[in-house]
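Sequence in, structure out.
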Amino acid sequence: MFIEQAVAACYEGAKSDGFLYRLPDDFPALKGHFEGRPLLPAVCHLSFFADAAGRLLARAVEVKAVRRAKFISPVLPGMRLEVSLEKRPDGWYFAQLTEPEKKKKLSQIILQFGEISQ
């Protein structure tokens, strides 16, 4: 299973200010990262942001560029996640991944999205 498909399967719904996901214990990217203490690889944060952007923009997108990334706290199996996206005046997006129940910031990234090339 592609990570994009696995991320889409985690989707729970939209809120007025974000998109909700649940990271299952058997999420494919957790295997081997790290044995005995699985956590979501940093690159997978980008997949969650791209999935949310695709839902927001109603078209398939991919991450085109990253200007800045800050990984604040580990994302662990079973966590409920919220993705929020804010388009900035310069065309870049400020994306944030949080644990909504605890209002805990997990990652913040400034990035751009582009159309998926076939």
